[in-house]
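Our preliminary data section would be incomplete without showing what the modeling component actually yields. Below, a chain of 196 amino acids is followed by its predicted structure, encoded as tokens that our downstream tools consume directly.
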Amino acid sequence: KFKSGAFDTDLLPKEHPAKNSDSDVLDYNQVNTGLSDMNKLLLQTNVSKSMISEEGAFFRIKKIPITVNDAVMNRVHYPQSENEKGMNSMVGKPLTIDHPIDDSGNFVSGREGKGLQNHYSGGVITRTYEFNNTWYADAEVEKKVLEVKSPVLFNRLSNKEDMPVSTGLLFTQNTQSGVNAKGEEYDKVAINQSYD
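Predicted structure:
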């Protein structure tokens, strides 16, 4: 999901192109997903100009950082085994413009109904992969759809401007607590990950 805001990239490898820009993790929320045993977490990261290209009718965005194995973000642990199982659920999912909400201001899925109708950017995630213990995603955005839905975002991609991107992650509610290898405490584990 394309989102405006400020970010902190402490979890990115030092050689990542977005490392010297800002990154952040949004507040952990139980959101109105219709699934009472699921939690939704919105993770944010940056896309830098070196990651954006134009190929015919599409913008291509490469190497969008998603998470790092064994990371703790917002007191949620991301073990490698769960990341490996869940990351592929992102492939084929639509990129939305901002976080989809309903008329009451509740977060909703960007894959159906008003969330898709009002927030679809013309883009999808095309692949996910791990490199040096960090998980990344690639995406493509159809230019003609984005130009109609969000001229501002279209211009930002055309000009290869740095911009924030957010993921919508669902995982099974749990109270598994502990400490990761870096000594960071967590209250939950991102198990049964499913990206929206």
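Helices lie at 80-86, 113-119, 143-149, 151-158. Residues 171 and 193 are 5 Å apart (CA to CA). Preliminary results of this kind motivate Aim 1 of the renewal.
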